[in-house]
Every structure is written in C-alpha cells, then in structure tokens.
Write a structure and sequence with these properties.
With 1209 residues, the protein is mainly α. It is built from 47 helices and 23 strands. InterPro entries: DNA-dir_Rpol_C_phage-type, DNA-dir_Rpol_phage-type, DNA/RNA_pol_sf, RNA_POL_N_sf, RPOL_N, TPR-like_helical_dom_sf.
C-alpha cells in the first residue's frame, strides 16, 4: 500500500476518533462537516476524555491490525484480509456508571473503514480471479503450442473447378475415388482465370519453365533463390528421415497461401510425390497432383514416374495405368524417357516397369547402351585395340588388397581417424595427469549438455515446422544425436587459440554433417554390400597374382562388371550448409561450460562459457569469431594430449581408389568426392560435365584414375631425421618450422612518458611484425605437425592418393595434408611403393636428378651434369652416411631434403654388387622449361622463343630464366653507362633467382604491380643490397623484365592481348568465357558479379558473398584477365593427361606435379618419348583459336584477330 493511501487512511482515522453527542445542523457544501458531521464541543470531564481516549486507542489498534494483514496479503499476491470486527468496550467497563459510546459513533466511522477494507478485499479477489483466468489461458495456449498441430493433408486450391472436383472426391464415397481422381486430374487444366490470375500464372510459368524439364543431365537453368533452396532441401530431407507427412504439410501450407506459393517449383511437388509413391499412398499422390495442376504447371517425367511407380506397387487396374500413359503422351513425353531420363533406384525402377508392362505387355525397357567410344584423334592410340599393351599391375597379391579394402571401408564408415602426434611428448607429471583427468570429466559433462541442447533444439524446430515453416529439423534427424555430439566435440578440440570465424566454422560443420549423411545413407540403402561385392571382382585387374581375360583400363573393367550406378547425391545448397553449421555452432556455444575455478581458482566455482563470440576486423571487414576461453586453452596445453583427429576424406586411402566412371562416381569408397573441385554452391561446372557426352570425358577420367592408382610409401629413414629436427628447435633453412617458443619476442608495450612519436611508431611497427611472424610460425608449425604425424602414422603402410581436378583440368590429390604437391620436405618423404630395378641407365638418371635438385649446372648438358655428379661422389656418400654430422653438402642444394633422399638412393645403388639390379623406389623428376612460354611459343610458331624454352633441338639445354636475366643485364649496363643511378646500384645483383618468379608468372597474367612485388621480395633477401633502393630498383627491373620478354617472345604478348580482348568482348555481351580442352573437358570461368545471402538470427547474422553464381552477370575484369592464364593451364593439363595415358599403356608408373613428371629412374627414357610429343595437341588448339576468331568475326569483332591470325600458320 502506497504512502499516499496510508496517509489518507490516517487522516480519516483522525476524524473517526471524534464522536458526536447530538446532531447538529446540516453541513454546508464544501466543508468537512458535510462528510463527518459537525465538530463536537470539547467541554467534557477528564474521566470521560480518558475513556474516549482508551476507546480510540482500541479502535485504532483493531484497524491497524487489519491493515497490516491486508498489506501482508498484497505482498504475496494473495488476498487474505480477514473480516474486520469493530471492537466494543464492555458496557460497564470501569464501573457501573461507565461511559458507553453511542451506537452511531461505534458503527459510523469504523463501519466505513470496514466497508472500505471489504471493497479492497473484493477488488483484490477479482484481480486474483482475473489473474488465475489469464494464467490458465496462457497455460492452455502454451500446451496447444507445445502439442504438435494436426498436419494438413488436403490442400486449399485457388482454381474453382479443381477445388470442386477435389471436394466431391474427398467427401463423396465412390468405389475407387483416388484412382479415378488421378486419371481425371491429369486431364484438368485451370481455365477461365481472372486477368490477375492469368498474369500471375504467366509469371510463374516463365519462372518455372527451366525447372520443369525432364530429370537427368540438363543445361543449367535459373538458379533457385535462397528460400527456395532451403524449402527444397527441407522436403528432400523429410523424405530421407521418414517425415513425409510433415513435408506434405509444409507443401500444402505454402500452396494454400498465394505469396508462399510463388516459392514452389515443380521439383518440390515431385519430391513429395516420389515420397508418396514409395509408400504406395495414392491419396497423397493425388493431392499433390491437384496442387501441380492448380499451380499451372505441367507434370514432367518425374511426376509420371512417381504416379506409375505407385500404381505398380499397388497393382492398380490396367485402365487407370493406360489413361496415365495416354496423358503422358499428350504432354509430349516419351515412355522410354522414364527409364533413361529419371534417376531411380533399382526397386523404384522395378515398380515402374511392373505398371508399364501391365498396360503394355510387349514393352521392354531400353537395353543398356554399348560403352561409348572416344573418337578424339589425340586419344586414338590410347584406346586402340590393336597393338600390344602392358597395363601395370600392383605389386600386392589379391588377399592383401582385400584386407586393405576392409581397412579402408572401416575407416570411412567411422568418418574420423585418430593419429598419434609427433610433437615431443610431455613427461607424465602430476600436473599433466590432473589436467587430463579434468579434461576427461569436463568432456563427459559437455557431451551430456550437448545431448540435452540438441534435443531441445530439435523439439523447437519440430514445432516450428508444424506451423508450416521449413526448418532444419529433418537435417538434424539425418544423423544420430551421438554423431552430432562427437562432431561438435571434435570441432571444439580443433579450435585454435586465436579463434575461428563463425562463418568458416559453420561451413566446416555443415560439410561434415553432409559427408556423414552420405555415408550413412549408403549404409541404409545397402550400397555397401554391393560395393564390396563388385570391388572384390575389380581387384582381379590390379592384383599381382591374378589375370583377366583381356587387358583393359580400370574404368573399362569396372563398367564391364555391370555395377549399377546409384542416383547421385545432390549437395546441399550453400545457404543450407551455412545455416545448419551455424545452428550447430550455436549449440556448442550454449552447451559447453566449465567451472570458473579453472580460470581463477580463488573465485567462486560458478560456470562460465568455454567459447566466446567476439568481433574482429579482417582487412576492412568486421567478422564474428568464436574464441575459446584462455583457461580452456591452457588446460589443453597442460594436458598435452598425444592424438590428432582427422576426417576420413582427409586421409590417404589404404586401398586403390574407385575408378572415375562419371562426374559423380569415383575416388573414395563411400565419401562423396567431386570430379571437378569448385567452391561450395557452384553448380555450373557440374552442369557442364553432366551435359557433356560421356565418351568426351574418358581421357580425363582415365588419367585421374591412373594418377590415383599409384601406390606410395613413406621414406622412413628420412622421416626419422626430420622428426629429430622437428622435436628440437626446427630449422627454417631446411623447411622444418621451429616451435612457437622460438618466435621473436615483442618489445615492451609500456613506454616512458615523453617518448617521441617516431619512436612510438617504430615500436608499434615492431610489435606488428613480431605478431605477424608468430602467426606465420604457428601456421607453418601446425601444417608440418599434420604432415609429419600422418607420415609417422603411415610409416609401415602402402597408401594411395585419389585425384580430382579444378575447373581448368589441373589435377590435385584429394587428401590435403600429406601428398606430393607439397614443398621439398613433403616430396622427399614419399617414395613409390613398388620398386623397379635401375637397369643399364637408371643410376645415371639418379645422378642427373640429384644435380637438377641442387640447382647447379642449369645450362649444362646431361653429360656434363653426370660428370659433375661423379666428381662430387664423396660428398654424396658422406651426405648419405652422415647427414647431420658430416660435411652436409646436401644442405646447400635448392631442394635439400629431396637431394638427401637421392644421395641415400645413389649410395644404396653404388654399394651393391650389381647397380643395374638395385631396386629403386625414388621418383625421378622431369620438369618443364617454363611451360607457359612453351605453349605460347608453339601457338605463335615463334622459333626464337621456342629455342629459349627447349622446343627446338639444341646441343645444350636452354634456361629461359638465365636468358631473361642476361637480357636485363644488357639493358642495365646500357642505362648505367648513361648515368642512371638505379642501374648503377643494381650492378652485380641481376641474377636468375631475382627474375625467375616474374618470368614464370608473366605468362599466367601477372601484372607489373605483382611482378614488382615479386622482385622486391627477392631483393630484400639479398643482405648486401642497399635496402633504401629496393622500391626504385624493383620498379626498374620489372620494366626491364617485361621489355626483355617482349623482345625474346615476340608473339607471346600479342597472343595474350588477343585472348584478353576476346574475353572482354564475350563477357561484355553477358556470357562467361567457355571452351573445351583438347582432351574434351568443358571449361567455364567462374567469375561473376558478387551475389550475397544472409543467414539471420542467433548470435550473429552471417552475410556470405560469392562471385561463382552463374545467374549473375559476368565480371568483365576477371573474365578478361583470367582467360589467358586459365587457357594456358588447360593446355598444360591436357598435355600432362595425354602423357599419363601413354605411360600407363606402356606399363609405367607415372605421377605429376602439373608440368613436372615423375617416374622410376629406369623408365625416364620411355616417358620422355611421350613428354615431348605435343605437336598434335598444339594443332588442335590452333584450330580452336581459328574457330574462335571466325565466330568473333561473325559478331563484328574481326578486328581482334588481325594482329595474331597470321602467326598461327
């Protein structure tokens, strides 16, 4: 009760204590007497006054007690005020003639107070009743909200006749309503729409025309918007998780609302129809057909396949099936297309065939087409049946390969691999034991908390889905809760101390969930058993102790086994991946907590979050970062756990990869792998591959299979030496990163008062430099830790590296951490698992290979290099015997670790009685001489440039980098004689190393700005060069390098300019630049205007930007600048693949690092026969360029080709 109300009550009480003895005149308006009566005279005896005072006190106490009880009741929101009884004094109190208050005085003021209290009591009671009613209503609403709503089945149609037709069949009782209804609805078309409805229908048809195409390889149409992608993914996942009624409910909800109906496409209707067909529910199928017709769409092959499949499962009467087939024919669809143009499982195909045969007994599905034959002139010899072939076989017997297959299968089914770390082990002190125990207990708590949060999130998303909104609920049902929890715990373990951007973490989690879902679905569909059966037969082609009837390529043998290809698993759209990953990351932030005592032992033991969401600036953008608490990072460091966790797809394979047979089948056994790697969400490359004739891709598919079939092993002796350095303090000169403890210490941040501003700026620059170096050292150390740990894990194993390619056709190993595309250290750790005897010339090639690795004798003949190797044989043997304590000659090489590995191989060979019989496992390299310039010289028929890059016969090998450096030196000497200061300063500093990177990259589109930065970096590495001239000297040298290249390669710049201008004209008309490589790989440049989408909600809204969206306009600048280097890269990859296929036909082991080819020492002469045979490839490219010039000329662009056309002949 407020003070004001209490004050008013006290004032009234004061008047109530004054009693009246006789009535007075009526009170006048506006006076207090009008309320309380006239004032009494105060002339009373003292005894009477005392009695009046006692009575007033008693009455006051009664009222105060009642008031206190009322206030107490209000404080607990409960009315408990008792009825106030006015106290009465005894009639003879204090004697027989005692004072007796008049009745009116007794019942007057006190009765009014009691009435007032009663009124307040009734008011509070009413408030209580209203509050109780309100709480009951809210509880009922919450219960209704928590209780799943009944799922809608019957749609609300916009078209009147269709709605009436549906109503009759829904509420009528014909004998077979849904079978008859399906036949009728297929013939129905919305008619007599209003003008607005017609316009809306036209817009919908125009938007959906591309999406209503038959299933199967189709050109890329307009891409779906973000909401459409999420809705389609929701429907598909509902079918996979058994939530078909929920998918139907959401589809009906969207269809019944005109605004949301605009999001629906025929593919969404077809998805739900296929679900009902698989369950044999005709009723649900007909409902969806009604919606399709109501939306103004025409059923396609997938729609009819669903209807006929359902009829086959239910064994419908022939009359209904015939009417369905007749309507399909009227819609212009062919019956054969149901079996050739729709991706169906074997079970679905059988149900479909059952229905069709019932209506047409003579029908038989089209037979499997004969294997297509590649007709490329470049590949004629590769696929020729005549002549002898000697395809290589593995060195392992069948039983061993079968055991390796089982190991790989278990690894992919487990999805994760635990690898022992090679970091120096910490001693098991009490602190380490305590930290590991604490971490173990915390993980148990975190897993329980994650289970609870995951269940709550799924329940919330399920309620939202029942409201008709597409959510992530079915995505979270694809995997078990335990799998999600393990995945999140692994992500927490791998989170770096400096944190990771929320967008990057969300994308990683989304991709891991998708990969696990694909593996899980293959288990459910019994594809694992079929794979095991066919793979065991496939191993007969590869095993060393088995023979096949006719030698053939792995792809051909796999296809001959008749392996049914399962329908390809479509990747989730990028918005769905990011949204799912973000949801999982937020659950991790919410659930994972730890006691504060770990961070501050003196404080209270309350829970604090392990992960914090903070913002940081990267360049000019502000990004959200999830950062672990420093106490958690310290706990991990103190525990020093000896294991690392890797995804199965990041590991080398333990058995030969699956042969590539199509754009979506090959490489890993179960894990999904793209044939053409591209940014997630980019579908244009996949569409091009699917539209390409299968035979056109045979060259690329077989080359990738051949590269992946090369078996590897780890060079154990070299690995021990590297681990010794790694566990010590590393060695930057040898490429072994030092530990973080060796990072430079930043200067003191506190400066004394009065420090000059220049000194403050210098301290800030030094601090930034130290932080940058520390971050770089941490990154390099982590990369080396992963590589060396995997090498140690695979030390005694044979393994394989499956390959795929980028959009230009350049090949890459799929495992990212340990492969032969790394630097010197990574390459030195790898050896061929199968050895070959050196033969008569193998030892010579080992020696030449060693000299090439040292970087010496670049312009000397092979005989001179061989003689030099024989001269330094003592140093070679000393390096092999005492690599860390001897003369250390190998450490001065350009590639020291590879040189050391070669020294050990040479020592082993020369110390055997018969070096020709020595079995060598070392790969010998044959590197290209600036392949980019070679291609330009060949295209331009430039004889001078061709001689500089060894395309012309010569007694001595030419080194184009040394040639450019010599030409630059001529220009520098001329300028120095004229008194140019920078030219005089550069005397003695113009070397091959300074100009090499710029010369190598200029043909790939490097600009003068980029070339200047490259040369500046090389000049800063020269300790005796005056650093104050670095900026001016780099400007001078890059200009002279470009001038030298223009003079030495007269046609190169002209061809580059022509290609650049062609790309500008193509992109100017709204098209991306596309071409087909000589081996048949379709290429499209993925450079478009940026498109953005936002994933809203949660701890942060994520804005994702992509320049790969083909629905956007091409980015003219990137298209024209990227065309020349991408075009040359595609030629380079075609040359490599062609060489690989020829070497495989000859039985050679062959791998490559782009333009650097590897094989056994004994097989180098055979490989070189095909390495130089690229004349036919160049002729094909020239023909293609002539066609491009002709096409541009037809569009009024013939002026582009005038300057270059003559140089092609």
């Amino acid at each position: 009760m407020s003070a004001l109300r209490w004050g008013r009550g006290a004032a009234g009480l004061g008047w109530a204590l004054r009693s009246r003895s006789r009535p007075g005149p009526p009170a006048e308006e506006g006076t207090l007497g009008g309320i309380w009566g006239p004032r009494r005279s105060s002339s009373a005896s003292p005894c009477e006054q005392d009695r009046r005072k006692d009575w007033g006190h008693a009455e006051l106490l009664e009222v105060l007690e009642a008031r206190v009880r009322q206030l107490q009741a209000e404080s607990v929101s409960e009315v408990t005020v008792k009825k106030v009884d006015v106290a009465r004094l005894p009639e003879n109190a204090g004697g027989g003639g005692g004072f007796q208050p008049p009745r009116k005085v007794l019942m007057g003021p006190c009765g009014r107070w009691a009435e007032k209290l009663n009124r307040e009591k009734r008011t509070m009671q009413k408030r209580k009743e209203r509050l109780e009613v309100k709480l009951e209503m809210q509880a009922e609403q919450l219960a209704r909200k928590l209780q799943p709503k009944p799922l809608r089945v019957e749609p609300q149609l916009q078209h009147g006749p269709l709605a009436d037709c549906l109503r009759r069949f829904t509420h009528g009782i014909p004998e077979s309503p849904w079978e008859e209804q399906l036949a009728q609805v297929l013939q129905e078309t919305p008619q007599r729409l209003s003008h607005e409805e017609e316009q809306a229908l036209v817009r919908r048809k125009r938007r959906r025309r591309a999406e209503a195409q038959p299933a199967g390889p189709q050109p890329a149409g307009p891409q779906l918007t973000g909401p459409q992608q999420k809705l389609l993914s929701f429907l598909e996942c509902c079918l996979l998780t058994g939530h078909l009624p929920l998918a139907h409910h959401v589809l009906v909800t969207h269809h019944s609302r005109p605004r949301k109906q605009r999001l629906l496409t025929l593919a969404m209707y077809n998805t739900v129809m296929l679900g009902w067909a698989r369950q044999g529910s005709f009723k649900g199928l007909v409902y969806v057909f009604f919606m399709v017709k109501d939306a103004g769409l025409t059923p396609d092959l997938v729609s009819y396949a669903a209807a006929l499949q359902c009829m086959g499962r239910l064994d419908q009467d022939v009359h209904t099936i015939r009417r369905c087939l007749q309507q399909m024919t009227q819609d212009g669809l062919q019956l054969q297309g149901l079996f050739t143009g729709v991706a169906l499982s074997e079970e679905e195909r059988a149900a479909l065939l059952k229905a069709v045969v019932k209506a047409k007994p003579t029908f038989s599905p089209p037979p499997r087409p004969p294997p297509p034959v590649n007709t490329s002139t470049l590949l004629r010899e590769v696929y020729a049946k005549d002549g002898t072939v000697s395809y290589p076989k593995l060195h392992l017997p069948l039983k061993t390969l079968q055991g390796l297959f089982q190991q790989q299968l278990r690894m992919e089914l487990g999805t994760t691999v635990y690898v022992e770390s090679v970091e120096k082990a910490s001693p098991m002190t009490k602190e380490v034991v305590k930290a590991r125990k604490t971490l173990k207990n915390l993980r148990v708590q975190w897993e329980a908390a994650l289970h609870q949060v995951l269940q709550e999130t799924k329940a919330s998303l399920a309620r939202e889905a029942h409201e008709g909104h597409p959510t992530l609920y079915p995505h979270l049902c694809l995997l078990s809760e335990q799998e999600f929890v393990q995945m999140l715990m692994q992500a927490l373990q791998a989170l770096p101390a400096q944190g990771e951007s929320l967008l990057s973490l969300a994308h990683q989690l989304g991709m891991r969930a998708f990969n696990r879902h694909v593996v899980h679905s293959k288990q459910l569909n019994k594809q694992v058993q079929a794979l095991e059966q066919h793979y065991m037969q496939y191993l007969h082609l590869l095993a060393s102790d088995t023979q096949v009837a006719e030698p053939c390529l792995p792809r051909q043998y796999w296809e001959a086994l008749g392996v049914p290809e399962a329908p390809p698993v479509q990747p989730w759209p990028l918005p769905v991946l990011v949204q799912l990953g973000k949801q999982l990351a937020e659950m991790l932030v919410q659930a994972v907590q730890m006691p504060r005592s770990l961070a501050a032992p003196q404080g209270a033991c309350r829970l604090i979050p392990v992960l914090y969401h903070v913002y940081s600036f990267r360049s000019y953008r502000q990004i959200g970062i999830l950062k672990p608490h420093p106490a958690f990072t310290q706990l991990l460091a103190a525990a020093a756990e000896p294991t690392l966790t890797f995804e199965a797809v990041d590991m080398p394979m333990l058995c030969p990869p699956l042969p590539w047979t199509s754009p979506h089948a090959g490489a890993f056994l179960l894990s999904p792998t793209k044939l053409m790697r591209a940014a997630d969400g980019t579908m244009q490359h996949q569409h091009l591959l699917e539209c390409c004739p299968p035979a056109a891709l045979h060259g690329a598919l077989d080359a990738l299979t051949q590269l992946g079939n090369c078996a590897w092993r780890v060079n154990g002796h070299l690995l021990d030496l590297v681990l010794e350095l790694f566990r010590a303090k590393g060695c930057s000169h040898l490429g072994v990163p030092p530990p973080p403890s060796e990072a430079p210490r930043p200067p003191e941040c506190r400066l004394p008062p009065g420090t000059p501003p220049a000194h403050k700026a210098e301290v800030r620059r030094e601090l930034a430099r130290c932080l940058k170096v520390a971050r770089e050292m941490h990154s390099l150390r982590a990369e080396a830790l992963y590589r060396l740990s995997l090498a140690h894990h695979l030390r005694h194993c044979v393994f394989w590296l499956p390959h795929n390619m980028d959009f230009r056709g350049r090949t890459y190993p799929c495992p990212p951490h340990f492969n032969h595309l790394g630097g010197d250290l990574a390459r030195a750790l790898l050896q061929f698992a199968e050895g070959r005897p050196l033969g008569p010339h193998g030892l010579d090639w080992l020696k030449i290979h060693l000299v090439n690795l040292t970087g010496l004798k670049k312009r000397e003949s092979l005989q001179a290099r061989l003689a030099f190797a024989n001269e330094v044989m003592d140093d070679i043997l000393d390096s092999a015997d005492q690599p860390m304590t001897g003369r250390k000659w190998w450490m001065e090489a350009e590639e020291p670790w590879q040189a050391l590995a070669c020294c050990m191989e040479i020592a082993g060979a020369v110390r055997t009685p018969d070096p020709a019989a020595y079995v060598s496992h070392l790969p010998v390299h044959q590197d290209g001489s600036c392949n980019g310039l070679q291609h330009y010289a060949a295209l331009g028929r430039d004889s001078v440039g061709a001689a500089s890059v060894n395309l012309m016969p010569s007694d001595l090998p030419q080194d184009v980098y040394s040639g450019v450096a010599a030409q630059v030196e001529i220009f520098r000497r001329q300028d120095a004689e004229q008194g140019q200061r920078v030219a005089q300063v550069l005397e003695g500093f113009v070397s091959r190393k300074v100009v090499k990177q710029t010369v190598m990259t200029v043909v790939y589109g490097v600009t003068r700005y980029g070339g200047r930065l490259q040369i500046e970096k090389r000049l800063r590495e020269l300790s005796d060069f005056p650093q104050e001239y670095v900026w001016e000297a780099s400007h001078y040298l890059v200009r002279q390098v470009f001038n030298s290249l223009q003079e030495m390669f007269s046609s190169t710049r002209a061809i580059q300019n022509w290609l650049t201008e062609s790309a500008r004209l193509i992109s100017h008309v709204g098209s991306a630049v596309e071409w087909v490589t000589p081996l048949g790989i379709p290429v499209i440049q993925p450079y478009h205007q940026d498109s953005k989408f936002v994933v809203k909600g949660g701890i942060q809204s994520l804005t994702c930007s992509s320049s790969k969206d083909s629905s956007q306009k091409p980015n003219t600048l990137k298209q024209k600048n990227g065309f020349p280097p991408n075009f040359i890269h595609s030629l380079d990859s075609s040359h490599m693949m062609l060489t690989a296929l020829h070497c495989y036909r000859k039985g050679l082991t062959f791998v490559s690092v782009h333009d650097c080819f590897w094989t056994h020492a004994a097989d180098v002469p055979v490989m070189n026969q095909w390495r130089h045979a690229d004349g036919a490839l160049t002729d094909d490219v020239v023909t293609w360029l002539e066609d491009l010039e002709l096409e541009l000329g037809q569009h009024g662009c013939d002026k582009v080709g005038v300057s270059i056309g003559k140089q092609w002949h």
